[in-house]
Amino acid sequence: MHKFDINVFELQTRSAPTPAAGADFIITPNAAERIELLAVTFTFDAAAAGANRLIHMHHLNGTSDTQGTTAAGFIVANETINVECSQFMENQDLTTSFATITMPMPGNVYLELGDTWVSEVANIQALDEIQDIVFRCKVWMRL
Predict the structure, then answer these.
(1) 14-141 belongs to which CATH class?
(2) pTM of the predicted structure, to 2 decimals
(3) If exposure means fewest CB atoms within 10 Å of the residue's CB, which of 3, 43, 77, 125 is most exposed?
(4) Contact (CB, 8 A) for 36 and 137
């Protein structure tokens, strides 16, 4: 069991590494910390070819998929979308074209060593790009 002082945390805004084209992103905590994800934003640039894409993000605790969220609709080919995921957002219906889509973040998404928050885009194409990944989190340092 890791020891953390639950009353002492710092709010931080961080950037996640940009994955290669056609790949999903991964958010991981540093070794000596525990983080609670509050929000994640990124830009998804769909290539001109391929089927509709569906964005799903979820928490992996090393072996199991414990919590997740899925967009309410598809992203079509040749479309650039800003994605905003937060604990207080509702899932936006994508029946019409929007420059920004919103997704609800499950509550209590805590990441410790070995945990990850990952994107999983259905029908992702080799030239699709995920960029400008920023997340807001509470950070506790191990005592």
Answers:
(1) mainly beta
(2) 0.88
(3) 3
(4) yes
